[in-house]
Amino acid sequence: MQLTYKILLHKEPEGSYTVSVPALNGCVTFGETVEDSIQMAKEAIELYIEELQDRGEDIPDDTGTLEYSLTFQTT
Questions:
Q1: For the segment 43-62, what is each residue's pLDDT rounded down to a tens digit?
Q2: Do the Cβ atoms of 40 and 29 come closer than 8 Å?
Q3: Rounded CA gap, 8 and 62, in Å?
Q4: How far apart are CA 56 and CA 39, in angstroms?
Q5: Nearest-angstrom CA–CA distance, 5 and 12
Q6: Are 63 and 4 in contact (CB under 8 A)?
Q7: Tens digit of pLDDT for each residue in 11-42?
Q8: Which residue from 63, 56, 72, 69 is spatially nearest to 23, judged by alpha carbons?
Q9: Per-residue pLDDT at 66 exceeds 90
Q10: CA angle, corner 30, sides to 25 and 34, nearest 5?
Q11: In this structure, which of 13, 19, 28, 42 has its CB flanked by the most CB atoms within 10 Å?
């Protein structure tokens, strides 16, 4: 089974990153660099999916989800 997930990296003031997986409610992790954050996200997603499988729950993903960023300039 192939699953697709979008991850959001938010840079923290001290330079590390908080990573969230919107399709997996509560799936959040942290990393020191972008590369580290992506690796941590992969591990967190794998563990999250394993837990859902153990409980017999449906596994949501982002297949078919469109993403778009809007930029606003304030005065």
A1: 999 999 999 999 999 999 99
A2: yes
A3: 13
A4: 26
A5: 22
A6: yes
A7: 999 999 999 999 999 999 999 999 999 999 99
A8: 63
A9: no
A10: 115
A11: 19
